[in-house]
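Follow-up to my earlier ticket, as requested here are the two runs.
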Amino acid sequence: MKFNNTKRVKTGIFGLDELLGGGYHRNTVNIVLGSAGVGKTIFALQFLLKGLESGEKGIFVSFDMDEKSVVELALSMGWDDVKNYIDDGDLLVGSNFHVEDISYLNSNLLDFILSNASEDNVRIVIDSFTPLIASLSFEMRKDVNWFFSKLREVGTSVVTIEEPLDGNLNNPSITVPVFLGDSVIHLKNLGYGEAFNRTLRIIKHRGSWHAEGVFPYRILRGLGIVVEGLEYVTRARVRASLEEVLKSLNVSLKDIPPNILKKLQKLMEEDIPISEEELIRILRRVI
């Protein structure tokens, strides 16, 4: 498979694109692996929101959440505009699926995605893929490979996988999609305390450089997932000035909710790269 390194899909996850060499490749399937509570669904919504704010379309498929649940999660994160994107038809939420086995991949689910992915490089999320492949064996690998190839034809996807409670990652339901995915990001909740409670590691990024190591991340209302620890990653972007961006938007500090302002100011003081474009995007969500 050949990738175009000049065209990347920005993830919308603050600090992650630098670790991925610029973002995801277009027309790829990207796995997000992690246990419950690490932020996989927030990651997926953040990915979709970045595309929606750039004028792209989004498809969100879930076997656990309906449209109301998606909106409630978005509102809890301060992403009030998600409901507007759904109402306008730019974000389609598919939840009326009943999973029986992996044969479902090539029936209603795929028909739903293909029939609604009319836009070029639509962003697709399947959260979570686990119910479809819970009984997966290595012999069924070709079915997953075929399904992933169909997703690549119509857009760029994020597929979440639930990590087993026993931590065993050798089960076919984990190893097969991890092997077949174009990139794999592992989110973990270590329980060490506030500073290093959650960590992110890029297991692979096919056809691209990616940063090695384990990176702490936080989940902040209004911002979403913010990856830290980028000291050694070369950055060409210039850090934005909060005051200058506010001036360009013709708003003042008092127009920003105090809790969001406090978090933004803290991020500006720390070694987390935020471009002017990203800062404007955050502010437009909350003012």
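Run two:
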Amino acid sequence: MTLRTRLAVIYAAIFSVLLGGLSAVSYRVLARQLDADATARLVELTDGLHGYLRFDHGASTIASDPNDPDQAAFIQEATQYYQIYNASTGSLVVQSDAIEPLGLQFTPAEVLAFRDQPKLHDIRTDYGRMRLSNSLVSAAGDLYLLQVAVSLNPVDRALNAFLDMLLWVVPISLVVAMLAGRWMVGLGLVPLVRLAAATHAIDVSNLQQRLPVRGAGDELDEVATAFNDTLARLERAVREMRQFSTALAHELRTPLAALRGEIELALLKRHPADEESRHLASQLEEIDRLKQMIAQLLTLARAEAGDIAVARTPVDLGALTASLVDQLEPVAQAKSIDLRLELGGTATVQGDGEWLERLVLNLVDNAIKFTPEGGRVSVAVRRDGEHAIVEVSDTGIGIAPDAQPHIFEPFFRGDPSRSAGAEGAGLGLSLVKWIVDRHNGRIQVQSSPGKGSTFTILLPLH
């Protein structure tokens, strides 16, 4: 899971908890408010009705001014659901037409219980919930129980409608929040993505580059500053290592030259067929190999340090490659290797002819070196769109998949058991990669152990 996805999920989880909690609290507050409003209205209707009740010999009437619309409206609402019991006998005195079908007729024992504890009661009927008030009215020496009811159906409908709305709004809000969160997280990570892109562009060849610092003074600027400090230390360390390698190579040249001269002098004093002469000749070969490795090391160190200039002139890769193949033909014949050349039109690039010659030479020489006797090495030069392509294929020992990412590293050698007979110090492909990079090209490798390798160079056409 990416950082963007993790942050979006965390944001959505926090938002869902907050939204769920807010919805639950809102529902609870609304329920309490609607309940309190229903209770207040019921108490208001009950208390107001007390002022209009009149009793005469056990009969109840309501005294009001029919010409007053406010009184008429109040009396109509208060007497919609009401009934009066004799609090002493429990007998029903009067009952409204609307309360009769609700089944709220009580026995004398229940009436006496209401008289002793006059409070509000919620009763569920076939027509919904009702809230019933109980209050005592004293008139002409008699005690009466007044019951006024209001319907709680409007409260229940409002709560159900609010709950239905939450069931739709909450999931939609969560989806919108997740999408918006992912978008906002992506927007917030843009500076980090830019830092990552700038970091990918830095390698050993351009350690002098630095990550951009926005000047915001935030955590990303701190990361960029810390990384730049690390790059500065790494640049100094690499520069010191290159200077050490160059100095060491220079220092080794003199003793090797002196040692070679002494061995040659010793050879002059001995018979060529002598056993010790053969040992001395073998030592000369090893010294020459060391000198070649030192020369390559110096060249690579100077190239990586930027001390070698690369010319920019038109170079015909086809003619250059054909000349090199002719020169290497005797080497291939000595190993019974079939060396082939295929030219597909003119492929001219802008570059340094000497370095490009070394590029092709190293690739073809490696192909011959790692191909067993009787194998085949094919060299092809062609055009493809805006690129000139040099392709070197062989039927040699191939490269193991785990070794392919490292073949352009200096001094890297593959499995020793597979390349035991191959000469070289592991610097040729490093130089090849440097030449390709300096010519704004790309190099690709396809290889299978035991089946051979194919190196493909793509260079911009002139």
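The only thing I checked on run two: The CA atoms of residues 179 and 415 lie 51 Å apart. Let me know what else you need.
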